[in-house]
Amino acid sequence: MPLATPAHAGDLPGYLRALRRLADADDLGTAYAGCTIALEVAGREDDGTGLAMAYSQRSSVARRLGDLPAARGDAEAAAELLGTSGVPEDSAVAALLLSRRLAVLLDLGDTAGADRLLAASTLAAELPDEPEFLLLRYVRGCLHAASARLGEGLADLYHCGERLAARRSDRPSILPWRSAAAAVLHRLGAAEAAERLVAEEIALARVAGLASALGRALRVQGQIRAGEPGLAAAEESVRVLQNTPRRFELATALVDLGGLLNAARRRAQARRVLRDGLELAEECGSPGLVARAKRSYGGKGSGPQSLG
User: CB 3.0 to 4.6 Å from 205: which of 154, 183, 212, 213, for a disulfide?
Assistant: First the structure.
């Protein structure tokens, strides 16, 4: 059923929730167009909070599409509007926006900037144990992991899993906490636990039929498994993600695969894959992934990207 266009600003919260569901199902083109409609409605009625929420949602969609400069611009516009709207800094709306701003910075490779943003927030300490704050806890866990605070990252990610299970909404398309935690466990040397978690996520993603969730989990499995099994998972990840709109996720999968091919001394194939990954990373506007692709191209690869 087509999504009804909001008639006035009062319709925006429900409309934006519907757009978020579309984005979670990878209907990103429809979700992005809907966000632009929401911006027009909020702007027409001079609704600052509505504008902030619409920019926040469009930032999330742009990030998933792999347009990181646009995602960052929308997120900053949302933050500026929210700051003047009177919405409390510790509200669910503010937490959702903060999680999206942090996720964009992580995809850009700006871990230090993400750390500074989180530290400056009133939500930097203990988060409320409520569903509306779960995405922020997940992104915070990914940030901890990216900043080598592995224990803190793992605690946040496992907490997400526990809360999702309690709500019976534990789906990789919502929060892929298993693959994120598996990447951390792998770095800690807990190979068996890491493999078990990522295998669970792959099984769930196959049942759900969402290609982007499956591709992401396979990418992480490729980094966890040794030798040919790891290469096979990484290659399947690229094949799966090529049929999705998730361009940054595909770029990351290509760079990860290129690094594995380099390690397997399949240099010619590695260079072709890394060249494709580098070009796509540049198109997505991620300095961090571009730098990692160049290091791998020169034979000095680094670890996998952990955030989806």
Answer: 213
Q: What does the alpha-carbon distance between residue 117 and residue 122 come to, in Å, rounded to a whole number? A: 10
Question: Within a domain: residue 242?
Answer: no
Cα–Cα distance list, 181 to 13, 17, 141, 157, 185 (Å): 32, 27, 9, 6, 6
In a domain, 49, yes or no: yes
CB-based contact 159:137 (threshold 8 Å): yes
In a domain, 204, yes or no: no
pLDDT computed for residue 125 by the predictor: 77
**Left (φ > 0), alpha (ψ -120 to 50) or beta: where does 132 sit?**
alpha
CATH code, domain with 23: 1.25.40
Least confident of 84-93, 177-186, 258-267, 285-294: 84-93
Residue from 138, 203, 144 nearest 175 by CA: 138
Q: Find the domain containing 18 and state its range.
A: 1-87
Number of domains in the chain: 1
For the residues 155-182, what does the mean pLDDT come to? 94
Q: Which amino acid is at 209?
A: G
Q: Which residue has the tokens 């999702």?
A: 164
Q: Which tens digit of pLDDT belongs to each residue from 130-155?
A: 888 999 999 999 999 999 999 999 99
pLDDT at 299: 55
d(CA 152, CA 158): 10
Instruction: Tell me which DSSP letter residue 169 carries.
Output: -
Phi, psi (rounded to 5 degrees) for 86? 85, 5
Q: Quote the CA–CA distance of 61 and 32 in Å, as a whole number.
A: 6
Decide if 77 is inside a domain: yes
Q: Is residue 307 predicted with pLDDT exceeding 70?
A: no
Cβ(96)–Cβ(54) under 8 Å? no
Residue 227: other Cβ atoms inside 10 A = 10
Give the SS3 label for residue 247.
helix
The CA distance from 247 to 74, in Å, is 18
